[in-house]
Amino acid sequence: MNMELLRQALCWSLGINYLILLIWFFVLIYARDWMRSLHGRWFNLSEQTFDAMHYGAMAVYKILIIVFNLVPLIVLYII
């Protein structure tokens, strides 16, 4: 695997992961009641807990995207 192929793969991975994050954000904003009712079937969560869990999970997902996609991509462009 050469460097250019790895750069392209990381770029695609970065784009796809941010797209997933944006879809998650927009579904949380525009279909929050649907998501809450869906999760409410399985778990007894208050509104504050539901919001905190999604906000925290989105933050962790974003940090993982940065650590595993963006940082290696920047390093490959530097070398």
Our Rg estimate from Cα atoms comes to 17 Å
User: With helices defined by DSSP (H or I, 4 residues minimum), what is the helix count?
Assistant: 3
Q: Structural class of the helices, strands and pairings?
A: mainly alpha
Sheet with most strands: none
Order of helices and strands: HHH
Number of strands: 0
What is the rounded distance between the termini?
16 Å
**What is the approximate shape?**
elongated
Q: Percent of residues in beta strands?
A: under 5%
Task: Give the proportion of residues in helices.
Answer: over 70%
- Mean pLDDT, all residues: 95
Runs with pLDDT <50, length 5+?
none
Identify the notable features of this structure and list them briefly:
79 residues, mainly alpha, 3 helices, elongated
Task: Produce the secondary structure layout.
Elements: H1 3-30, H2 32-40, H3 47-78
Helix pairs in contact: 1-3
